[in-house]
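[job 4471] stage=fold_predict status=RUNNING
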Amino acid sequence: MPNFKDITATLNSLANPEQALILQRFFKTAPGQYGAGDIFLGIKVPVQRQVAREFQTLPLSALGRLLKSKIHEYRLVALLILIKKYEAASDIKTKREIFDFYLNNFSAINNWDLVDLSAPKIVGDFLFNHYQNRRVPVLRFLSNLADSSNLWEKRIAIISTFYFIYQGRTRETYYIAKKLLSDKHDLIHKAVGWMLREAGKRVDRQELLNFLNTHKSLMPRTALRYAIEHLPEPERRSYLTKK
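[job 4471] inference complete, writing structure tokens
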């Protein structure tokens, strides 16, 4: 069975210093920026997916070690493997173990790409299909995340609802979006707008328009722009002008 040393040696061998510099600028890793302290090897995502396939039998203990690393690709590959394990699990007990493991490693899921690729496929799926906590129902679970002072937990709250949207359910998306309208961070504005757009495009356009008509005066411009991207141009102009 492959181990922690095997996968880190493989990833280190694929490092591209020039690409790493580009990624460190793109993911805002300078002091004071949202990705401060993140280290990149410079490995493109398709290559990381290939590594994840090769090492998908890696145990959770090794994934935990990867997630504790400051190297971005270590964490991303660990999450890609975790998704594979979750999707391959045939019983609720294993899925719950992976869900709990994910929750226990929230601190490692600390950039937008890490959140976006993993939250719907693990948190969203588990909450929609398997979560049965009567004391903390699904909507309250997501609401608690949205109330967090941590940027990434708030993004997980809204992005997790992407799975719900795919299933044709939007209640959670609109509820969390409303809670996050007053958030100050651009990455939350983008996430909220993105999920609103998807809810309107994939499920119910009129429901989105009703939400926009009620809340457009409170919506950050970035969130509004993202939410209306799929609307006809005259309609987009109307919303932006009124805003």
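[job 4471] summary: The first helix runs from residue 4 to 13.
[job 4471] exit 0
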